[in-house]
Each structure stands twice: as structure tokens, then as C-alpha cells.
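Side project, low priority. Logging it here so it doesn't get lost.
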Amino acid sequence: MHTGPIPAVVSAEVTLNLVIGGDYAIPVLATFHYSAHEPLSVIADFASGDVAVQWIFARDLLDSGLQQPTGHGDVTCWPAVSSGQQVVCIALRSPSGEALLEAPAEEIAGFLARSYEVVPQGSEMDHVDIDGLIEDLLADRR
């Protein structure tokens, strides 16, 4: 429980395993970000050596993936056990390739719990500036 003001942004560094095949995996550092300004999404920055990749996906997708298989298309998640540890598998697909990552479920659940302190589950639309989005869409970009 927080004793001070709740931050508008929550971040967590998590070491995931990039599954290469069979029992072989490469550790990949990821930083997960959640912001009250983008209440429906989570940003994941993945870094390995000189390679950095950013993915944006629904917070609800990551949360549901802790309990059951979820998602369609570019990002899917599901719970699993790897080397005796509870993990959430995150499959990422793009035209340039695919990746299967295993994240420690406890760390992802902790990150999500902190994000729900910022914007409680179910209240995300209270934090979306619909008028601002419409104004941006209709703005003259010349």
C-alpha cells in the first residue's frame, strides 16, 4: 500500500527469456511502462545487445494472459510453467518475424497491480480524453 502520492507512470524492469528452441533461451531485459495518459495500453521496451524493440499492447491482454490463453494476431499471452517457475508466455508476431518470450508471472502481476493503483481496472475510459482525440484527428496538419 502506498503512503505517498500515486505516480502517474509505473515502470518495471523484467528479465524475460527469449525462447530459441527446445530448452534453449536467451535472457532479454524488458522495461514495462504504464501511464494514466494512455490508460488502455502497456508499452514494453525489449533490449538485447544492440537491438531494441518496442511493443504496445492492451493492459487487459497482459492481465488475462496470467490466467488463460488470450489475444489474437500480433500479440498473444498464456500462463505456463518453465523450469518449475510460473511464467506468462508472450508471443509477438510481425511481418519481420516472431518471438516467444517467457516472463516471470509474479513480476508481471506486481507490475499490473501497481498499474491498477494508478488507474483501477474498469475505469480506463474515465482517463481517456475523447474530445482531445477527436480534435487531434480533425486538426489541419498542413
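Brief comment: The CA atoms of residues 22 and 52 lie 24 Å apart.
Revisit when time allows.
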